Amino acid sequence: MRFRIPSLLMALLLVGCSSLSISPPLTTDQHWISETLPNGFRYHLYPIEGQDVELRLIVNVGSLNERENERGYAHFIEHMAFNGTTHFPNNSVFNEFAAVGVQFGPDINAVTDYGRTVYQLSLPDDEKLDEALRWFRDIGDGISLSEKGVKNEIAVIFGEWRLDNKAQSSWQLQVYDDVLNDTPYVDRDPIGTEQTLTQANATSLSRFYKKWYSANRMQLVVVGDMNALALQQVIHHDFASLPTESNIPERHVLPDAQEGFQFPLTVLGQQGQSPAIVVNIKEGQYTPANTLKEQRARWLDWMVTDAIQLRLEEQLDRRAINNNGVYSNVSFVPGWNVYEFTVDHNQQTRDDVVDAVARDFASLRDIGIGESEFQLLFEQYQNIDFSIDSYSSIDNAENAVSNLYINRLPQDAFEEHDNFQRFLNELLREDINARLRELLSPSTMSLTIAYGRGESLASADALKRDFFDAVAQAGEDVTIEYKQVQIPQPTPVASPDFPPKVVSRDLYQWMLPNDVPTTFYQMDDGTGYSHVVLQAKGGLSSLTRRERAAVNMLYETYRRGSVDDIDLNDFYHYVDGLSASIVPSVYANVHNIALSTSSDTLAESLNALRFLIEHIAPDEQAFYREKSRLLARLNSVKSSSYDEFERASLQLMYPDDSFESQLNLEDYEQLTFNDVVAVYQRLFADLGNMKVYVASDLPPSVIQHLTGTYLGSLSTQRPPSKISPVVLHEKGGRVVLATSPEYRTYIEKIFVLKVKRRDVEQFFAEDMLNRVIQVRYNAIMRERFGFDYDPYFYAWTWDGEKVLVAMFTALIDPEREEELQKRWPAIQAELMRPVSQQERNNAGVQLSREINSITRDSHQLIGALARYDTWGYGVEGLLAPEDVVKRIDLEKLNALAASIFAAKTQFENILRPAYDVISTK
């Protein structure tokens, strides 16, 4: 059990310290058991009863530790740790842990950066904990580095290179490269260089491995349900023998960027990327918050950046300046605080955006935010829930990895919570305004202008001068008032006089007063959050081509409208203040409205949702502005080679009347305001043919009362949507384009067959077969032949459909395309060989583990609950997946596998390098 310090006692301790001239340092969470072995190896244990077991091995070695002829070696060693070690030879580490549901990628993986390599292993319990520690111990000094294994892995690493490196980089990456020019961060990409990797051999890698994999550079993190005392004994026994160069643990340190770094003035985005302007504010050198006072100062900076983003969004809306989004972030410039504000826009509105942002910055600097803006920010921060009791194993493990980056363990959660409350209690509007005056000096700002590919850059210098001239002028006194929204209560409806029906453990059902079926799952996750989904069959498959285009205009047309006499901006500010979000969505065969909110404000949030559905009205002028923006963007942005390839592939597979076919410029040109209104009414006007799904930690009786009160009076007159089946060209076909700007070939092999409508067993069988074939495909394509770093297979049936699509993809060296095509019949034969009992068992355990994890996360659960119920899969698959898995035998899996490759409809899509592209490795 975790020992908890009462919040009142902690508050008294903080008050008692507040009179000290030096703020108290942050306190490490006392639940960590942390020790250093005589060889400098450190371990950190965090027992949590009843939780999964998360392990991380951190090694302080990365690309900055490499010599010039060792470029890429740290990353290379990371790869070899999975290929074979003393106790887990020949990739057997994957098989060892697959039996308990561990999957390569999400559960067992690693990453190498500039100064660290972090190995990850996620276990469902402590059954395989001894084996996990044995593998981590092997990584310390038992990685197999045979000459054959090293040579085979070179092809895999170049496959990763092909995946990550593009000839036309995004403007964000260009900014990163320019800012960090003349620093080791640009020249020391962890993946290395062609020369060093092709010349790597077992001897040179072994030399690097023995030098840097020293015990004093390693730290082990284990979080979850464990016997900590027994685990300590194992660690002391096994890891004390790791070789070391010093008994003093090494700190993780990365060099700071030079003080004189500058952000670029102009960059050119990759084809198809939206233009943007970026304002970077160089605040000063970065130091971690080490005291309670410094932590409150950090929170103040967060609030200040939120205040800037809020003002930019608000004023762009008020000025009716079309934009594609406003974002705030912290730039990666080692050793420095650099705040970043980005506005994506259209080419036609760039001048207006630059002028508006400059004037907003000047206004915030000289006048500051108003009381209404302050209250909105305060309410949003007040509703932040630290969810102290709900921290999962993975949350704590990742938090530890992040904190150990700055050489400390995580702060005590209760101290952090109480310090945050103190921050809010002491916060004044003038605190924010004073910080705005410090940050928004023109001398600290850099302006980056990202142009779309094909645009002229001639206006850049003039725009920069205009921006800084405007920022330097006295700021305008902008008054922004957010109205106090008062949403009336609904007309009372008769409450049901019967208790909820108990369907199974924690699952309940009832009918609302308007006869809308409601399903509720009671969570025990301690997050204090509730999720509601109103869902109906229909979606894109129920719409005409013109209506599908109208769906893409819904958001902007309605976002700038009103709810009764309440401006939608004010309405959504009210919803934000409830720590809630309301999001309508349209998918292939369903459409829904999702509400997420704090359980404390569920009543107010449901009332807001009810009022929105009943009274929302669109803005016609917003429709015309959005249509103009969309058409301008489609006209001005030339399709990239990837867009052309995707369009050609979709045209090959789907006729124009299929809901999966792509829309084009003409589809949007003919749209009217009435089209958008009509499609909204068709999908979201009331609760007709919808069902209600709720996941919350509140009791069933409370949820029954709240849903009945706020949703039970809504109209249900909307007729059901008629779903059209997906249509494909049954003859199949082939698309080959030689237009890629990269020296790499992308191949898709697609098999399409008709199947019976899915029940839960068919659903599970498809999932299990996916897992079996993906493991085989990865072993063949990556490990055996080195064709592709991340080969992909997936087979799926649309919910409610009778068509199964199976897709194999590969991203390969163009020089090996002919080889792959020749090998494909043999590869296909191996992929469809009979499934073994062990393969079936591993897939079943993985699927069960994945579904069980969903039921512990209310946000994931609500979507799964709605899906399973809508399509008749039943709740058994969610609540007792092991029972369904037991019914999936080898005969069912093998029959399904054979049917895939026997499909009469087959497609092949190939994107090759353009004829003038040469290798850039």
Automatic annotation (TrEMBL):
Keywords: Hydrolase, Metal-binding, Metalloprotease, Protease, Signal, Zinc. Residues 1-23 form the signal peptide. Residues 52-180 form the Peptidase M16 N-terminal domain. Pfam families: Peptidase_M16 (PF00675), Peptidase_M16_C (PF05193). Belongs to the peptidase M16 family. Its cofactor is Zn(2+). PROSITE patterns: INSULINASE, PROKAR_LIPOPROTEIN. Residues 201-376 form the Peptidase M16 C-terminal domain. This is Insulinase family protein.
